[in-house]
Amino acid sequence: MTKHNFNAGPSILPREVIEKTADAVLNLNDSGLSILEISHRSKDFQAVIDEANSLFKELLDIPAGYSVLFLGGGASLQFAMIPFNLLEKKAAYLDTGTWANKAMKEAKGFGEVIETASSKESNYSYIPKNYRIPADADYFHITTNNTIFGTEILKDLDSPVPLVADMSSDIFSRPLDVSKYGIIYGGAQKNLAPAGLTFVIVKEALLGKVSRHIPTMLDYRTHIKNESMFNTPPVLPIYSALETLRWIKNMGGVAQMEKRNTTKAALLYDEIDRNKLFTGTAAAEDRSRMNVCFVMKAGYEELEADFLKFATERGMVGIKGHRSVGGFRASIYNAMPKESVQALVDCMKEFEKKH
Ligand SMILES: *Cc1c(COP(=O)(O)O)cnc(C)c1O
After folding, report:
1. Which atom of ligand 1 is closest in space to residue 147's alpha carbon?
2. What number of other Cβ atoms are within 10 A of residue 3's Cβ?
3. Ligand 1 centre from 45 Cα, in Å?
4. How much distance in Å is there from the Cα of 224 to the middle of ligand 1?
5. Average confidence score pLDDT of the chain
6. How far apart are CA 334 and CA 286, in angstroms?
7. Which pLDDT belongs to residue 235?
8. Catalytic one of 166, 170, 219, 286
9. Given CB 3.0 to 4.6 Å as the disulfide criterion, which of 71, 193, 294, 348 pairs with 198?
10. According to the model, what pLDDT value does residue 214 have?
11. Does the pTM exceed 0.90?
């Protein structure tokens, strides 16, 4: 049976990326060696990281003055590394969910943290819009896609202070105006590569302004200076990331990704809105194109377990909702083909007919 992979993370990768990664594990560039057993300083690997870096910049149209870093530690380490490097007095955070909250909590160890707004009172079902960003903050932190709650900031916001964005789950899903951001970061395991890789796009001019001592490995300048090779980087996930970037380029770049993502998300949200059994949990104007959250409509709650079983029997994988929302979550990242979204929609229609 065909499996349709709606896992939230680690999650679906293009089949081609998985196959090419497997090839490199067996025999990198016909060298007779595996990528797993060569030096990260070898010519073969240097070519991999160089091309990944230049494709990253090309696809996102990253202006001069920014560096792209490939690090370890996950987005979660960035929650601390960002204030370590940027927070001198005060930072502002927009509280849009679990991950935003974790980032904010970590910053509190480094200085004053202002919560500009929060949608916690409605279980993070929307993105707050009316708030003031303090002009004397060292930076303003946002989470562009709230993986757990299925809301997304689809615009590049204007901010009077450097804008820092966790884009773990929507990087490369649309074109970006990178010049509006100070730092863009994320774990790679949602939209880019297998787990183990963290990407950071950092505006160099923001660094070197805090007075505290920064440990070498936590200082962005270390990794800029050494082009992500101060220590051994996560070589295999970087290789897969390169293959994903090549795939995105072949597909027509991030503008094409956005088209695909808009079409796929509309297909699923239209069915959620039409079907008498289901209802979406996120405010319509803030619906994520990456993580689609829905629950049984009032009166049909007792069918939840039945639908999960029904869908699982038809090849749907990973649609059980996160415990903080319940119901269902279909993660439909870049790599998810429209056919899989259609298969889920068909499942929902078929289930509706039975009830
Ligand atoms: C998954 C996720 C994280 C956590 O990433 P790790 O790499 O596991 O630390 C952080 N932020 C967002 C938005 C996520 O989706």
Report:
1. 15
2. 12
3. 27
4. 22
5. 98
6. 19
7. 97
8. 166
9. 71
10. 98
11. yes
3-state secondary structure of 71: strand
Fold classification of 15-250 is Aspartate Aminotransferase; domain 2 (3.40.640)
pLDDT band at 136 (very low <50, low <70, confident <90, very high): very high
Q: Which of 95, 170, 190, 286 is catalytic?
A: 190
Mean pLDDT value of segment 68-86: 98
Question: What sections of 129-276 are H helices per DSSP?
Answer: 220-225, 235-250, 253-274
* Nearest-atom index, ligand 1, CA of 77: 9
Counting beta carbons within 10 angstroms of the beta carbon of residue 313, is it exposed (0 to 12), middle (13 to 18) or buried (19 or more)? exposed
| Percent of the residues in the chain that have a pLDDT greater than 90, as a whole number | 100
* Domain ranges for the chain: 15-250, 253-354
Q: Are 185 and 200 in contact (CB under 8 A)?
A: yes
Q: Which residues line ligand 1 (CB under 6 A)?
A: 9, 74-76, 99, 143, 147, 166, 168-169, 187, 190
Catalytic residue from among 95, 99, 264, 286: 99
Q: Is 166 part of the annotated catalytic residue set?
A: yes
Distance set, CA 150 to CA 127, 223, 252, 335 (Å): 10, 33, 26, 18
Model pLDDT, residue 203:
98
Active site residue 247: no
Q: Tell me, which fold does domain 253-354 have in CATH?
A: Aspartate Aminotransferase, domain 1 (3.90.1150)
State residue 337's pLDDT score.
97
